[in-house]
From TrEMBL:
Signal peptide start-end: none
Organism: Patulibacter brassicae
Protein name: SRPBCC family protein
InterPro entries tied to this protein: Polyketide_cyclase/dehydratase, START-like_dom_sf
One Pfam family recorded for the sequence: Polyketide_cyc2
Length: 148
């Protein structure tokens, strides 16, 4: 199994309260999550994001909130059991840490973690690169939503 992760940090010209508004509710994630078209079945810390794949195919991804500290931390774990993703990943998670920054700004750290089924140096290297890229896309989307 190849454990991969990617982390990025950056400031957002919004207070932690404003950033939290965008991350606390699964229904609002569609506004900034990469390739998200809609959110479904948002209730009790669980939700489904319908994403558009690079080939233009809609893909359903089920998530649950696994950790949450108001205006500080939100962590989602992808529900993989009985999904096509289970063939490629044993675990998938996204974590956002929010800290106050100077003025009315926030420092946001995004970490994407994946434990891949495929083993080997190449899988690990490609997985880390993909995780970093996705973390950057998440931060960019959140920055756009929180400052609009």
């Amino acid at each position: 199994m190849a454990e991969t992760s990617g982390t990025t940090s950056g400031t957002i010209d919004a207070t932690p309260e404003t950033v939290w508004y965008w991350v606390a509710d699964g229904g609002r994630l569609v506004s900034w999550w990469p390739r998200a078209e809609r959110a479904e079945d948002v209730q009790g810390g669980r939700f489904t994001l319908v994403l558009r794949s690079s080939r233009g195919v809609p893909v359903r991804v089920d998530w649950r909130v696994s950790q949450s500290r108001r205006e500080q931390l939100q962590r989602w774990e992808q529900e993989l059991d009985d999904t096509p993703f289970a063939k490629a990943m044993r675990r998938s998670a996204v974590e956002l840490r929010i800290e106050p920054a100077e003025g009315e700004r926030s420092l946001v750290t995004v970490t994407v973690e994946r434990d891949l089924v495929q083993r080997g140096l190449t899988a690990g290297m490609l997985g880390r690169r993909a995780a970093r890229r996705y973390a950057n896309e998440l931060l960019t989307g959140l920055r756009r939503a929180a400052t609009s």
